Amino acid sequence: MSNLKKLLPYTKPYKSHIIWNVIYNILYALFSTISMLTLLPVMDVLFGKTKTVLIKPIYSGIGDIKQFGTDYMHFQISTLTKGNSIEVALLFVVLLIMTTFLFKNLFNYLASYHIMHLKNGVLKDLRKSMYNKIIELPISFYSEKRKGDIMARMLGDVNEVQNSFFSILELIIKEPLTIIFALVTMFIISTKLTLFVLIFLPISGYIISKLAKNLRAQSLEAQRESGFLISIVDETLGGLKVIKSYNAEPNFKSRFNDSVTRLLDLSNSIGGRNNLATPLSEFLGVTTIAILLFYGGNLVLIEKTLDGSSFIVYLTLAFNILTPAKAISKASYAVKNGLAAAERVFEVLEVENEITSKENAVQKNSFESDITIKNINFKYEDENVLKNFSLQVKKGQTIALVGQSGSGKSTIANLLTRFYDVNEGTITIDGIDIKDLHLQSLRGLMGLVTQDSILFNDTIKANISLGQLDATDEEIIEALKIANAYEFVKDLPKGIHTNIGDSGNKLSGGQKQRLSIARAVLKNPPIMILDEATSALDTESEKFVQVALENMMQNRTSIVIAHRLSTIQKADTIVVMQKGKIVEQGNHEELIAMNGVYNKLVSLQSLE
Fold first, then answer.
1. 304 or 525: which carries more pLDDT confidence?
2. Cα–Cα dist 322/194, whole Å
3. Where is the protein found, in the record's own terms (predicted)?
């Protein structure tokens, strides 16, 4: 029930739809019973059992309602047939049936109309909340989670909540009221017969509830397996070249087939129980009706305490209970699926985002003097990646970080942009701790170009203007020229309006990287962070990109994380890192003269 409470705030904007749905469901349930009762005067007319009542009956209380209803209907028929043929009476009762069924179905439609708006509205709001949460959560969250599992929660589980959870409204309003109204009417027709029916209903409910046992746990397991399956597909599409080049197709097919088989077994088990709910509840209902026929037949034929017309109407009411009873059993199964899905949805929505802006965080739009990294320690899991690390970057300087893989270079970029937070120590910009800065304000001061050119399936213009959505075509072209990219963009069929495909795969690696640089140029931040921006490129592409980087870094403060040392020889200061610590520091000439770690790295690369 806790997940149901968590879902309630999402229904508040649609409160009016809930109220109207409840009202129309009550009216539907009422007219569902009335429509069955209108069969009674038809039977009386057909079998010639209509009594002549010329004086309008007077209602004397709930205890006399059965007699009053019968007499009032006979009075209306007597009034109509007075001076007319029996056909007029028959036409009246037939029109009465049509009218009650019309209202019953009209109210059913109106109830469905409002529940549709409620379901679709909550689905939209849940998706928005999920997407907002996915974007807001820190990078660290996704280092532990599979993308496919998050996608499964966003799409499949949210849909399951929409489809299943709102069965509760029918479970607690529409169907139970239909049963209650029918049972009340059945009591009025024959108390003895209805008490006999009520003996069998708890037995049926118990059998169905036993069948539903463990369904929620199985549903949760199936949804997790579905997330794992989507992850395999996602990884397969992302790494197709590697899979093919290593002849790893059988391995991935095996992983996929194992997952599909597990999902098949779970789905069959859940589906088997779901499918059994309807025929089982119908069989139990028909068994009750069969016993009713025998017992009620005795009341009509032998004891003569019930007339035939009333017994036929009683049976239609009993059948009228079967449909909502089946709906309740199906809805209870659906709710269990919905509970499992909601658990996975709220598991993501309730993740605490530790990297956020403080209350009354400082807004900063300019960079005045320096970035100071002081005595920071940081670890991703157990082992420290940075140990007591300190560094000062003055405005206008180009600082290069070099060292072997795993020395902590890229971690510096992650900490400066607050993709992660330091465990100990401080990072300040112009003397202000970056944790005290508004997060958007901090990232607004920085431009980031990574080793992987992250581009989106859109036009060149849309990709480049990501940080400045109101940029003109002229500003975009200027940024492309600075990034040494306009020479190939101008030759494309639609220029800057050309779609570059999924992840920019219509372009070469060097072209994609130059577009990433153009994006940073257009943003025009005072601080530029280049995280191994040329390490994935061939020599010719690297030259083009290096020119673009040099153009971009003019009159800016730059932190360059480099693998290829040839690209950072002009840096003001080169910081050599090893196992999270600074082992050497100076410009290129000074470090060569030291004949230490840096000189060794340069010598090794010159041999490549």
1. 525
2. 14
3. Cell membrane
